[in-house]
Amino acid sequence: MSNLSRRAFFTKTGALILGVSLPILAKAQDKIVTSKSEDNSHHSVNTPTNNEYHNAYIEITSNNQILFHIPDIEFGQGIYTAAAMLLAEELEVELSAIKVDAALPNPEYILKGEVTEVTWGSGSTQKDWFPLQQSAAILRTMLLQAAAQSWKIDINQCHAKAGQIYGQNGQQAPYAQFLHDIYNLSIPKEVPLKKTEDYRLIGKSQPRVDTSEKIKGKAIYATDIHLEDPSVPAIRTGLMIACPVVGGKLAHLDDKNAKQIQGVIDIVSLENIVCIIAENFWIASKAAKQLVIEWDYGSQSAATTDSIYKQLDQAADEQQAIIGYNNSSEKIEVSLNATSHIYNGTYKQPMLLHAALEPLSCTIFINETKCEIWSCSQTPLWTRDKVAALLKRDTKEIYFHNVFVGGSFGRRLNDEYILQAVQFAQKVSYPLKCVWSREEDFVQDHVRPPYLDQIEAGVDADGLITAVKHHIIGPSVTAFWDKSLLSKEGMDPDLLLGIDTLPYQIPHYQLNYTNCDIQSIIPGWWQGNGATRNIFVVESTINKCAKKAKKDPIEYRKLLKPDARAIAVIDMVAQHAQWEQQPPKDIGRGFAMAHVFGSYIAMVVEAEITAMSVVRLHRVIVALDCGLAVNPDQISAQIESSAIYGLGAALYNEVQIQNGQIVQRNFNQYRVLHMNEVPQIEVHIIKSNEHPSGVGELGTIVSAPALADALGSILNKNLYSLPLNKYLT
Amino acid sequence: MVELNINNKIVRLDVSDDMPLLWVLRDVMGLTGTKYGCGIGECGACTVHLDGKPVRSCSLPVGSIGNQSIITIEGLDNDPIAQKILDGWVEKQPTQCGYCQPGQIMAAIALLHEKEKPSKEEINRALSGHVCRCGMYQRIRNAIKVAVGSTEDE
Predict the structure, then answer these.
(1) Which residues pair with B6 in a beta bridge?
(2) How far is CA A591 from CA A554, A703, B19, B82, in A?
(3) What are phi and psi of A352, to 5 degrees?
(4) How far is B78 from chain A (nearest CA, A)?
(5) CA distance to A43, A362, A448, B127, per residue, from A352 (Å)
(6) Domain segments of chain B: what residues?
(7) Distance (Å) from the C-alpha of residue B145 to the closest C-alpha of chain A?
(8) E strand or H helix at A289, and its extent?
(9) Which CATH number fits the domain B80-147, given the four candidates 3.10.20.30, 1.10.287.110, 3.40.50.1980, 1.10.150.120?
């Protein structure tokens, strides 16, 4: 949100000022502080009952500790660190002085342009960039004002450093000393932010603030919760077994034998899911084997992978809606007819699992006064409100703790598992730790849906691409997720992602869409969203046209009038990949680029196909322009991460459906990249002072087309379909 | 009743012999640093040491352990090699979501107990059964290299 309005900004800043914990309100503050034990390896259930500070970003405690309650969730992308850097920079404290934890959901955190609090779309740093710095700068200025008044000197004779205010006559006091006073000051409307050249932290690689707890096994994930309050009953484990077919229901449950097992406490069920509650996971999984469950699989029990693809093929002949174009003066057919040659291609992209390492998980405790939940939701406010509606309780009684999570890749944008867990917790009188086995996590995944993309690409006499008709056939994830995000005409903006911001010029590009709902799957957001699908198609098309024109793919793109930032990443990646030199013998080299989430990325992949028809990934070189790089080392880590995620999926992954069920049940059936298989990765970041833009998903978005280009150059053909290992057999 | 030596303490637990060590650690002992990822020994998130050797605790019944020493991510205090590994981890920052990291770290420490300066291939062999969905493998390898005093990065 680079163009954050003043109004939105003040809403957020207002939250900040309200939230500065003051000793004068020690009663409320004490409760907040005691709710977070010093050693955060254990969570207490004594959550604050006073809501006054739940919209605080920043708390300065009476002992000068700075607490930062962050609305963005941390699923690995490093936002706890980047956001703390923004605060520390303007607050004039060291990064280590800020303790970061998850904020409770609050409407105050919704930024203008967002439908709710949401962590997605590689957007956290870019949306936090201005509000967090401005909040910290205002707070620092008010502390300086308070000190100046107290010392009866001018504010310009004071400065802030390392959590202390200094006066020019040798005065010194910690920030905490002025907390009483700042409430009497009016809030400055705007405080100028630091100049780039004055940054102490921003732009300089900082270690992650969550490293220590994560490498010592002390980081708390949803099933690591211990409740130490002696008045709370012992926590029990609820193992989930859900109907494996979408739309199916429980028909009959015989739990007689399962209940005989010592340590089994309850067996409860909802319409389409059973929860075996036991003293621990092991007993619950033993009992699961003794359960006799009959499902009524419903109407989707005959679905197969083939039937799903057939459905897409049939939909391809149905009516298309025009959803986007960049030339309104003539019809795409006219533009295509004016070209020298038209290349057709149909691209096929499979269903994919998220396969995060931590299976779905959620711990809940409900009593008369509150419902407390430890889990992960990328839309925590929605989740809180849905829980409140389900329990028919005030939202103030719902405490949703967004704890660390072992990856998401888009899965935690759906919170149906939390609502299931709440319904089970409602049926029992003790805290419930709901666990999904790996098998259940895979089978219950909201998969990246399958797509067909038909391309007609027209080139001029020089072989340059001038007109593209692009027809997408598949489900709309947005329509399933939140219809309010569709345009007035019912169009899904995600379908345009990446095409609406191409880094080069294609004079006439038209996107058509045929919706094809696939009832046997639940479509979910997956790393890179629509851009991952679109960029594979458009970049593969560009690489194909370059080959047809007998032009180098990099030179070809330069002929398509890329903008200056695009040229810079192209040149940078070419230089570091030694593009001018021929690749080593037997190595195929591929190129792809994108401009999405505000950033530019160019990737070169070097790969080999061995005599045994095995793909070896040798080297990946990336150039990235993400505006001002707030924490360069973690930006690099994000690209490494998303590239490995994307390369593994592009090479190996495809969800199979049989009898309406996802076939793959564990990592032995869903191949992910391991240490001995990954390429050497280099990430080169353009130096820039532009507004920070998205990073997290960029590597995934270009991986498939770059790898397809590399393998295609070895196999001497254009590769239209994923996963790519299908071409090797 | 099973008697186990966990992090240099003898504990007597009322659990069945066939219960995998992972669930004894997590659900009985409250040692939640060891993680569940797959339950079939495919991902390595549950790796602990048994007499110094890395084992998949999700697939190890406690009845088979006897008096062998179990060390978990919480029990590394007196191990100088563990400290070197953790220092390497801090320097190379291979942690993202963090869920696989205790398992990766336990495997790395066991490797260094066995081999003072492992080669890249030896590191790959020792850790290639560990899944990191954040794809931090190159950084993990570099962190191990730092721990053994190597300065060359990939």
Answers:
(1) B9, B70
(2) 8, 9, 50, 41
(3) -135, 150
(4) 14
(5) 35, 23, 5, 26
(6) 2-75, 80-147
(7) 14
(8) helix A281-290
(9) 1.10.150.120
What tokens were used for A356? 């995060």
Burial classification of residue A367, based on how many CB atoms lie within 10 Å of its CB (0-12 exposed, 13-18 middle, 19 or more buried):
middle
Q: What is the pLDDT of residue A33?
A: 26
Q: What is the DSSP letter of A515?
A: E
**Is the ipTM beyond the 0.95 threshold?**
yes
Domains and CATH numbers, chain A: 6-208 (3.30.365.10), 222-298+360-435 (3.30.365.10), 305-351+447-728 (3.30.365.10)
**Count of Cβ atoms closer than 10 Å to residue A184 Cβ:** 10
Phi first, then psi, for residue A605 (nearest 5°) are -115, 135
Mean per-residue pLDDT of chain B: 97
Helix (H) or strand (E) holding B108: helix B101-114
Specify whether the CB–CB gap between A412 and A405 falls below 8 A: yes
Q: How far is CA A640 from the centre of its chain?
A: 15
Measured between beta carbons, which residues in chain B are less than 8 angstroms from residue A280?
19, 23, 26-28
Is residue A446 helix, strand or coil?
Answer: coil
Q: Say yes or no for a CB contact (<8 Å) between B97 and A643.
A: no
Biggest CA-to-CA distance, chain B: 50
Is B35 in contact with A406 (Cβ distance < 8 A)?
yes
Low-confidence residues of chain A: pLDDT under 70 = 1-56, 112
Q: Are B56 and B47 in contact (CB under 8 A)?
A: yes
CB contact under 8 A, A407 and B138: no
**Which superfamily does CATH assign the domain made up of B2-75 to?**
Beta-grasp domain (3.10.20.30)
State the greatest distance between any 2 C-alpha atoms of chain A, in Å, as a whole number.
82
User: E strand or H helix at A32, and its extent?
Assistant: helix A26-35
d(CA A367, CA A371) in angstroms, rounded, equals 6
Sort strands A158-161 and A164-167 into parallel, antiparallel or unpaired. antiparallel
Residue of B nearest to A236 (CA): B27
Calculate the alpha carbon distances from B22 to A40, A246, A283, B35 in Å.
22, 32, 13, 8
B101 and A215: CB-CB below 8 Å? Answer: yes
Distance CA(A640)–CA(A501), nearest Å, equals 23
Point out which residues pair with A434 in neighbouring strands: A238, A362
For residue range A74-133, what is the model confidence (pLDDT) as tens digits?
999 999 999 999 999 999 999 999 999 998 888 877 776 778 888 988 888 888 888 888
How far apart CA A427 and CA A404 sit, in angstroms, is 27
Question: How high is the pLDDT of residue A16?
Answer: 34
Q: What is the DSSP letter of A441?
A: H
Yes or no, beta carbons of A641 and B131 under 8 Å apart = no
The span from the CA of A135 to the CA of A148, in Å, is 20
Touching check for B145 and chain A: CB below 8 Å?
A: no
Contact status, residue A373 vs residue A418, Cβ threshold 8 Å: yes
- Whether B139 and chain A come into contact, CB under 8 Å, resolves to yes
CB–CB of B86 and A407 under 8 A?
no
The DSSP H or E segment spanning A337 is helix A332-337
CA distance A141 to chain B (A): 34
